[in-house]
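Task: complex structure prediction.
Instruction: return structure tokens for all chains below.
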Amino acid sequence: MRLENFEGPLDLLLHLIEKNEIDIYDIPIAKITDQYLTYINEAKFLDLDFASEFLVMAATLLAIKAKMLLPKPVKVIDEDEGEDPREELVIRLIEYKQYKEAASILRTREKEMTKVFTRNFDEAQIIKKFGPGNPVENLTVHDLFQTFKVILEKASEPEPIYEISREKISIRECMVNIMEALSVSKKGLVFTDLFPLGTSRLRIIVTFLALLELIKLNRIRFMQSGSFGRIVIFIRDDEE
Amino acid sequence: MLFLDETKAIVESLLFVSNEPLSIKQLSEIININPDITQRIVEDLQAEYTKNYHGFHLIEVAEGFLFVTKPEYDLYIQKLFKPQLSTLSHAALETLAIIAYKQPITRSEIELIRGVKVDKIVNTLVEKNLIEELGRKEGPGRPIVYGTTKDFLKYFGLKDLSQLPSLENLKHQEE
Amino acid sequence: MLFLDETKAIVESLLFVSNEPLSIKQLSEIININPDITQRIVEDLQAEYTKNYHGFHLIEVAEGFLFVTKPEYDLYIQKLFKPQLSTLSHAALETLAIIAYKQPITRSEIELIRGVKVDKIVNTLVEKNLIEELGRKEGPGRPIVYGTTKDFLKYFGLKDLSQLPSLENLKHQEE
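Output:
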């Protein structure tokens, strides 16, 4: 199965869940994330838009995985217990699955309807046969005048302007933010904490690019406690 | 071999979907049956649809057989299609009003006022014979200029364009 | 008052020439008869054309009635037309399903559910006249909201939206 055969990241995840005969309410996130990443690694992305959708999901999976691996703080507050980092993803998957089912029902109906033919009269031909008639039968010259009046009034009004809010993040700004955060916490930053759930797609991508840039500039380094362990980012000291 | 009822149904379905007359030969080839059988079925269908309670019948024209509505119901069919004859969409009315008052006018000048593309609407108005090409404007691209037709005057009961309610009146109303 | 046979013939002739489903209301207005009578005639016609020896029948679809060929004869009709049967892509079907159930819905709401961009697909569906803009949503950017069209109902052979299986049922099938 190639990535192009999937309608999107959710479709791929559902495929993995079905293939592994997994209970959707109890996804073994580490296993699924590994399999998901294998697909991504083997894919040759031609369409960048399409690719970015899959990468965003990869980041989400890694974030969930990290949260689940994180040891519970000692002073845990009771209310926090029972909150499953997978919950939001599960809700999305179940909703998506419903519409996938609905789509397959529509497909069945579509197939039935392609066997059915209607008469296909050329209506223009029929209308021609009946002669031109009066195309403005129900209109008077007054309607014409009123319409033009409204157009003129509209033309003299200033265009309404709506402010559309869009997150503006530059890579530079993001690099500064990461460095500031690193200078405060001597113990480093957990990689996935840079991408809390609900982070906008744009911010995820820009953050990722900022990290790459910082690595290239030798400003930060990464440490990982074994493969699939959590990744921690540190400031690279000048002496190193 | 198909049963006769089924064969009849197939012939009927083919005649039903076709806008062109179908010959005995064509029908026989599609269904892969003896033309004699096809001939008999078509005659059966002709007899059946001649009956009073049917609204259409099967006529034989030069090239074959064709289902058509019975001529006595023309008026009702005309009524069915009539709404399409007479209604002008609001967008079309706006465009017509602009052309009436600002003629001669190019398509892009209309678009400037309405703020949307008007290609289709202009074509529709030309088809309905409400506007026509008056010629071409001097300048880059030599765009076509449009104006209203004689039919436009007729439909709105105007002797000539000077009878359109004037914009001067509009100004005075405003003040 | 028209005789019943004649009225039936008129209803039949109208249904025969129309490419679009006709409602009881439309038919009654054109013929100027009581909708109850129209209803009875339409039911009569439905029963009549169900019979085996007919190649087409009267279905109730998109809030009206439409003569269509019986599905079992599609192979013969394809031989006549050699039509290019194009079906919708899977992505288009998924998007349509979401719009059908959640309308009115914005593009970004669809994207949230599907997890991918839907710009192109939404445009294609609008071009195919399966969905349409219903207006704009209040809020930042005032995004366009979409819903399904009558052609959507016709395309899938649905009488109305209530004929879609309920999402609750889909959920239970899963469990």
